[in-house]
Amino acid sequence: MSTATPPLPIAVLGATGRMGERLCALIGSAPDVILSGALVRSGSPAAGLAIGATLATDRIDTALGGARVAIDFTPAGATLANVRACVERGVALVIGSTGLGAAEDAAIADAARHIAVLSAANTSLGVHVLAELVRRAAELLPADFDIEILDIHHRAKRDAPSGTAYLLGEAAAAGRGVLHDAVATVERTSHPAVRERGSIGYASLRAGDVVGEHSVVFAGSGERVTLSHAATDRGVFAQGALKAARFLAGRPPGLYSMADVIRG
Ligand SMILES: NC(=O)c1ccc[n+]([C@@H]2O[C@H](COP(=O)([O-])OP(=O)(O)OC[C@H]3O[C@@H](n4cnc5c(N)ncnc54)[C@H](OP(=O)(O)O)[C@@H]3O)[C@@H](O)[C@H]2O)c1
């Protein structure tokens, strides 16, 4: 009699996107997981086509059938419906989508009462180490060091600043002991554009095929500290999201983070 553990069935939401494709391929190559569902946009010509071990569908209930965990890499506008469907079906959920608003945040907090859920604007290991370093630097450096965050992404990215830039800004604010939303400066086109003391500034470049680069600059008078991370391959995000899915499988309802996944 075989005692082998059956592979973990995972649904990928946004399966034909840049991230979705990487994730489906990764799941297809890992022996301990299986692609049980693949959601595409309503009316997508990909619906009905084979993706790995499953058929793409534009129906969320079909995509979630048989899944224990779903991984969402759809654009932010689709996330609310995906969260609700996962709660209805009791499927744990990893959300990689960025640009989420207050409605999504509230739905995620509510979902965490019913299912295991993790929302991460960046699922790479390196960025979470960077966030920890940023928090520490903000704690150690005097408050008169200006903090500026730069993100560079490919030309098709829909949100700016990036979710990761905000994650780093939150880490800097936490290290400095201030409320992020009270000090964040996202645009400087209005005049006067002089820097406000204690603010955390954001700037975004969108160009070419850049996968994702982030720098946090701490600039004092006469010296500057820059901490940065560059993703050169989307595979790191896919691997992190898959690791998060394995981590969530079988966990009790609650809101988990990539820090939980990294700590194991
Ligand atoms: N957490 C991380 O580490 C990380 C890393 C990279 C990206 N991201 C985020 O992940 C999201 C996706 O990024 P991406 O670069 O893969 O974008 P993308 O290439 O535009 O992929 C999004 C996919 O979702 C599909 N889609 C749109 N509406 C849908 C719906 N209602 N249901 C199902 N599928 C739907 C799109 O289909 P069509 O093309 O047919 O419209 C497209 O295939 C973005 O928010 C991005 O910022 C996060």
Task: Describe the model.
The chain is an alpha/beta fold and 264 residues long. The chain folds into two domains: 8-119 and 235-263, Rossmann fold (3-Layer(aba) Sandwich), CATH 3.40.50; 125-231, Dihydrodipicolinate Reductase, domain 2 (2-Layer Sandwich). The chain has nine helices and 13 strands. It has helices spanning 18-29, 60-64, 79-89, 102-111, 125-140, 163-176, 180-183, 235-248, 258-263; strands at 8-13, 33-39, 50-51, 54-57, 69-72, 92-95, 116-119, 146-153, 184-185, 200-206, 212-219, 224-231, 254-256. The strands form two sheets. Strands 3-4-2-1-5-6-7-13 form an eight-stranded mixed beta sheet, sandwiched between helices. The protein has a five-stranded mixed beta sheet with strand order 9-10-8-11-12. It is elongated. The two termini are 31 Å apart. NADP nicotinamide-adenine-dinucleotide phosphate is lined by residues 13-14, 16-20, 39-41, 44, 73-76, 78, 96-99, 120-123, 237. NADP nicotinamide-adenine-dinucleotide phosphate binds at residues 13-14, 16-20, 39-41, 44, 73-76, 78, 96-99, 120-123, 237.
Rg (CA only): 20 Å
The number of helical segments is 9
What name does the CATH topology of the largest domain carry? Rossmann fold
**Low-confidence regions:** none
The CATH architecture term of the largest domain is 3-Layer(aba) Sandwich
Spatial strand order of the main sheet: 3-4-2-1-5-6-7-13
Number of domains: 2
Binned strand content: 25-35%
3D shape? elongated
The string of secondary-structure elements, in order, is: EHEEEHEHEHEHEHHEEEEHEH
How many β-strands, per DSSP? Answer: 13
Per CATH, the superfamily of the largest domain is NAD(P)-binding Rossmann-like Domain
Largest β sheet strand count, sense and barrel closure: 8 strands, mixed
What percent of the residues sit in helical stretches (DSSP H or I)? Answer: 25-40%
Bound molecules: NADP nicotinamide-adenine-dinucleotide phosphate
Mean pLDDT: 96
What structural class should be given to the helix and strand makeup? Answer: alpha/beta
- The rounded distance between the terminal residues' Cα atoms is 31 Å
**What is the CATH C level class of the largest domain, in words?**
Alpha Beta
